Amino acid sequence: MGKMVEPPKPIVKVPALIKYAGVPPREYKEGRGYSEGEVKAVGLTVYEARKLGIYVDKRRKTTYEENIRRLKEWLEAVKRGEIEPSQPTLPKVIKIKPPGKKVFKGKTMAGRKMRGLLKLKYRHTHHYKWARKQRERELKKRHEARRHKGGH
Question: Which residue in 49, 81, 91, 106 could disulfide with 54, CB within 3.0 to 4.6 Å?
Fold first, then answer.
């Protein structure tokens, strides 16, 4: 068996940007992946191509003969056994853990009551809350622990 070789990079046109006054610095550059049309012209599906380690850019619509020719040559070498295809390039699956449960201290009535903001004369001020917390700190009442965990 041959050594593992990545497929050749596709060649795409450089966009005519305003900063280049409509004339790009060069005509072609290496692209992110082959278009679906180029992969189908070689006789593969998108899934099969990705299993062989070929990057497929689903946003690209153009098909270039140069890319098709380079991809065919690489596939022929793989079929003959001269080289091995690289690792699959299937989309990565990312699992995100849900956030843990915690006390909601938002703008609900329960949250405002817990923060001591429902008494009529103190309803629109934070100074009351801050002063109250400071007083509880000075008396070492463990105001933070008592409130959230149901302790004394």
Answer: 49
